[in-house]
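Q: what sequence does this backbone want?
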């Protein structure tokens, strides 16, 4: 009887322990460099690019490569926060499939872009709408066909757990 109760208690604790596990360290394939990652200063949008496999149907294009100001994998669920990666590659890779998995989603947000050898490329997410503020594990991945190029996990947490952490970088000037 005690063994059954003990086994049931352990079974209940395993999901809690998994949820408390830290995000895995970022991973890259050979020839892919993760130059930086974390929360970055908001940049002016250069416009939008069609991305029909995303909730909005488009992504914002940026005027440059953002400055990462908080080098971490914990992100506050706060409107206006931008987080992501800066990647470089040793070769041109056209048609890279970028995937962002939100907690509990049955399929990722997907958009396609090119990676040009030797250039910095920003790939990220910004919280524009309340419906996007989903606490939990987020994952950003990129693929060349079926080959995984990089993976970064993020823990989006209630904003009060990270006071002062955000993308309002006016204090830097």
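A:
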């Amino acid at each position: 009887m005690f063994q059954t109760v003990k086994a049931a208690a352990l079974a209940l604790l395993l999901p809690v322990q998994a949820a408390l596990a830290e995000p895995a360290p970022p991973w890259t394939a050979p020839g892919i460099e993760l130059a930086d990652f974390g929360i970055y200063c908001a940049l002016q949008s250069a416009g939008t690019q069609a991305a029909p496999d995303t909730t909005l149907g488009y992504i914002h294009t940026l005027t440059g490569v953002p400055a990462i100001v908080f080098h971490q994998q914990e992100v506050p669920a706060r409107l206006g926060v931008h987080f992501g990666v800066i990647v470089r590659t040793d070769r041109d890779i056209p048609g890279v499939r970028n995937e962002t998995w939100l907690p509990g989603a049955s399929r990722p947000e997907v958009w396609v872009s090119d990676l040009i050898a030797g250039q910095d490329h920003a790939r990220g997410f910004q919280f524009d709408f309340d419906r996007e503020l989903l606490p939990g594990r987020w994952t950003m991945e990129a693929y060349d066909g079926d080959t995984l190029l990089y993976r970064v996990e993020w823990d989006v947490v209630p904003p009060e757990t990270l006071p002062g952490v955000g993308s309002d970088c006016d204090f830097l000037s």
